[in-house]
């Protein structure tokens, strides 16, 4: 199968747009076209031991859950195992394709928005005062466990502002509150909401039910 066609299929199933901005996803190394993929090798982590197996199988494409290339490389030498992986991939033209897909949970796995913790029952929203502070705020809140973050543009007092929305647990909410209280100059117009599951129609506590026929209860 042609590499570009395969990438299109991957993107249709797990779009790269779902990935967080800190994640390094997609095609990481691409050989000169055309490149046909006959053998696809799947792995959770591309270690040097796994690379040996890839070489033995003569895989045309390696799909890794964790990106083998994450931080920028200033040089490619034999000093580190990450650099050695790149060298070995480049040495084999049929192997020089490394791909990683989004680490963010796929939205089809849940009926809720992607990346929302199932135990999260609190939502806090606030506006960023200055766009240059956005990275600082996002980095801080994403470092808190059990927090899911989204951002969107909103018009507030006739000005375009970036609005941050967090879904989190009660414990995480306290940590977010501590950060905000120490950085009051970064945000404004805060709202805190308690999230509850929607009630099903004609069910739940407080409903009186009348049976069509009497029944006996075991004691």
TrEMBL record:
Gene3D superfamilies: NIF3 (NGG1p interacting factor 3)-like. InterPro entries: DUF34/NIF3, DUF34/NIF3_sf. Pfam families: DUF34_NIF3. SUPFAM superfamilies: NIF3 (NGG1p interacting factor 3)-like. It comes from the Eukaryota. Belongs to the GTP cyclohydrolase I type 2/NIF3 family. This is NIF3-like protein 1. The lineage of its organism: Eukaryota, Metazoa, Chordata, Craniata, Vertebrata.
